[in-house]
TrEMBL record:
Pfam families documented for this protein: Hpt
Signal peptide: none
SUPFAM superfamilies, sorted: Histidine-containing phosphotransfer domain, HPT domain
Entry-annotated residues carrying Phosphohistidine: 71
Protein name per the record: Hpt domain-containing protein
Residues annotated as domain HPt: 32-127
Protein keywords: Phosphoprotein, Two-component regulatory system
Entry-linked InterPro entries: HPT_dom_sf (IPR036641), Sig_transdc_His_kin_Hpt_dom (IPR008207)
Length: 127
């Protein structure tokens, strides 16, 4: 198996792992205690803003900015354990490296939907 195929298999496996890694989410909750909900809300608002900026980067065919935003979203999502967002953001980074951000409207909308699922899962866990 080539390195590229192994990377794709790893990303596809992450898509099947669920919306949020339970252990990572609970570790973060324990670490931040009473500030956890504020941190989570800031993550959601910031991620929504990043998705809007990704849409603008796609429209402007700005691969550099698209890569940087996807990278930041991937990192923030990794802290939370948002497995689908990690995988999709990584995929967008790869497309930006290939100078194809202008062809990624569908992928960016998949990222937006994954964020909606993360927000719904967080709301369930916080209730």
């Amino acid at each position: 198996m080539t390195k590229e195929h192994a990377k794709k298999d790893h990303i596809n496996k992450n898509l099947d792992d669920g919306i949020i890694n339970h252990e990572q989410f609970e570790d973060l909750r324990e670490l931040f205690e009473e500030d956890f909900e504020k941190l989570i809300r800031a993550y959601i608002v910031d991620s929504q803003h990043r998705i809007e900026t990704l849409r603008a980067a796609r429209t402007a065919n700005d691969n550099v900015n698209g890569f940087e935003i996807a990278h930041a979203l991937k990192g923030a999502s990794a802290n939370l354990g948002a497995t689908q967002l990690i995988a999709l953001s990584h995929k967008l980074q790869e497309r930006c490296r290939e100078h194809k951000v202008d062809q990624q409207a569908s992928l960016i909308e998949d990222i937006a939907l994954a964020l909606q699922r993360v927000e719904q899962e967080i709301n369930k866990r916080l209730s």
